[in-house]
Amino acid sequence: xxxxxxxxxxxxxxxxxxxxxxxxxxxxxxxxxxxxxxxxxxxxxxxxxxxxxxxxxxxxxxxxxxxxxxxxxxxxxxxxxxxxxxxxxxxxxxxxxxxxxxxxxxxxxxxxxxxxxxxxxxxxxxxxxxxxxxxxxxxxxxxxxxxxxxxxxxxxxxxxxxxxxxxxxxxxxxxxxxxxxxxxxxxxxxxxxxxxxxxxxxxxxxxxxxxxxxxxxxxxxxxxxxxxxxxxxxxxxxxxxxxxxxxxxxxxxxxxxxxxxxxxxxxxxxxxxxxxxxxxxxxxxxxxxxxxxxxxxxxxxxxxxxxxxxxxxxxxxxxxxxxxxxxxxxxxxxxxxxxxxxxxxxxxxxxxxxxxxxxxxxxxxxxxxxxxxxxxxxxxxxxxxxxxxxxxxxxxxxxxxxxxxxxxxxxxxxxxxxxxxxxxxxxxxxxxxxxxxxxxxxxxxxxxxxxxxxxxxxxxxxxxxxxxxxxxxxxxxxxxxxxxxxxxxxxxxxxxxxxxxxxxxxxxxxxxxxxxxxxxxxxxxxxxxxxxxxxxx
Length: 537
Ligand SMILES: [Zn+2]
Fold this sequence. Notes:
The protein is α+β, with helices and mostly antiparallel strands and 537 residues long. The protein has helices spanning 6-9, 35-50, 52-65, 73-85, 150-168, 188-193, 248-262, 301-322, 342-355, 362-374, 406-410, 441-463, 465-479, 501-512, 524-528; strands at residues 89-92, 101-107, 111-117, 172-179, 202-209, 217-218, 223-232, 271-278, 289-298, 325-326, 330-335, 339-340, 415-421. The strands form three sheets. The protein has a six-stranded mixed beta sheet. Strands 7, 8, 9, 10 and 11 form a five-stranded antiparallel beta sheet that branches. The chain has a two-stranded antiparallel ribbon with strand order 6-12. Helix 7 (248-262) crosses helix 8 and helix 9 crosses helix 12 (441-463). It starts with 5 loop residues before the first helix and ends in a 9-residue tail after the last helix. The model is unreliable at 1-27 (pLDDT under 50).
């Protein structure tokens, strides 16, 4: 958050007639036409189009790995190999997370960090291109959100831009990194703590969606802290001597009852939910250990902290009632609410207008409508064919919703999330239905559209250094004027890299049989022998 002004003083970037900082408005004035930049953008767009097969293979490959958060072993290896092959230097195992990396190419300013998530969803195994629930492996994880597609957006864009940078001798550094364990909001706060974004000028994040879109200001949705409460009691014969035991499970149940009573008196914007990860071993043994895992979500940092304190109080009270001990709590993940940069969003939005939505085929629309009908959506309107009419600014009334730990990055570096149209509208999220499009032409076309936008935005940032300056002006003078980032993770917390290991150990041997082999099959649908689209008669 400092030393960014060195951008100009170091003279690394092209000379810019910059007005004094104070006179500069945060919003970028529409730039004078720059024929060279426009020509390079057109070249990058054409190059991304020519890399369609590369993008498709990456989308299909990661889909086939179907790896849960912190266990993205194959995905990690595949991405690192791809990046190394393309000239990137890769730092592996960053921030104490084995399945995270930072890949770097280029030199000098600006430093542009391209990120996207890579993990999948429990129990979302699904045959792609089939418009009803049809698991590839019953109970196995699968890409029931679409995190298999975002790296292809960034890497395809980066390779197209890199080619231009080499020829034109453009200064700038491209970083590529994975949103490891995003479904656990498990990694990005640790990336910040490890200082991995200290020298980054702009973070361009990308996430699967049903339209091509970007926004600025506070995003709707929540931040959160994810906490595990573990209790310790004493075993006893549950029938012969129950009075000699103390049940840790009682504390878990009492905590959940307490929380659900308190829920009535929480703000409307909150979301909270839990799963019992240890409920004892067998009924005739009084449970000595039991654990419950909570997500506490709110729309700002002080309210997240307040919920967390309430949770801690109820846990202590439950332990007292059950006569058991509350163990030290474990933070398993955290996320700040998201705030996106106005200048970078406006730059991206202008490029979105130039790219527009993909040309969907009859088959694409047939699949989308069949799935929407299958889910009994009131209107089965198929895929989006229109962009949003204008750039979305700050959300007026945030009634709560999901989270993404890109929020932590967004409070440290000017950031936007580019959303690209690789999925079908009207789906439940975190569900097998969200996996259906994700290794089909719908996902592939959406990724190519997203990569075109991303490539153009990177070129804007490389060739118009005033944009980077203005982005930081907004970041400093507007976004962080009153709100300062404080991590939700505590000094003693470490990445929860053991999560999901046992699930992957259980399913991986069977899943391996279905890994995509692009040397033998053009697409993953071909490999699986699935006719596209497969819909009910
Ligand atoms: Zn996501």
